[in-house]
């Protein structure tokens, strides 16, 4: 039997977060690497994701796109992996998973594009300012091994990836809180599998 999960990705994409998540759940999956350009905008792939972007998964015929949604979906679809807190204890889990997917990613993206919102514009934007967003995130991970309780969860996959990549590429400050939190996550076996996949692809492309 073929795996129930098909994973569409590109090694130089946010698909690395989903790759890590898939390794954490420990279920077999079929990886389909989609090249940037015509392949990602092909009719076949647009039927999976009309945005023409990766990652995406298909699980038992159900399509899920958007990285945070995929992480949350997989945690629920495979409860034996214990990657989501009990339902009554998910306040922090949902809060920080979607804080990273919303305000954090928007703030970092705006800065990377050279956009500096004025004080009036900050009132219109969900993230306000990058400094305010990073201050809030630093408070969330300060003196905590995991962001949503006593155990590792899908929220750590997503938030940790954003922090780790952000510090690596200089879009997020290397604050002590971020360094300590990322240090506790970066050597998980599932993340290292995803990291090796990306590094091998970069070497083949002559990027390292």
Verbal overview:
It contains nine helices and four strands, in the order E-H-E-H-E-E-H-H-H-H-H-H-H. It is globular and about 50 Å long. The protein is α+β, with helices and mostly antiparallel strands and 208 residues long. It folds into two domains: 5-82, Glutaredoxin; 87-190, Glutathione S-transferase Yfyf (Class Pi), Chain A, domain 2, CATH 1.20.1050.10. 51% of the residues lie in helices and 9% in strands. The chain starts with a strand and ends with a helix. The longest helix has 22 residues, at 91-112. A hairpin with a 2-residue loop joins strand 3 and strand 4. The model has no long low-confidence stretch (mean pLDDT 95). The protein has a four-stranded mixed sheet with strand order 2-1-3-4, covered by helices on one side.
Secondary structure layout plus pairing:
Layout: E1 5-9, H1 15-25, E2 29-33, H2 43-46, E3 56-59, E4 62-65, H3 67-77, H4 91-112, H5 119-124, H6 130-141, H7 154-169, H8 176-183, H9 189-204
Helix pairs in contact: 1-3, 1-7, 1-9, 3-7, 4-6, 4-7, 7-8
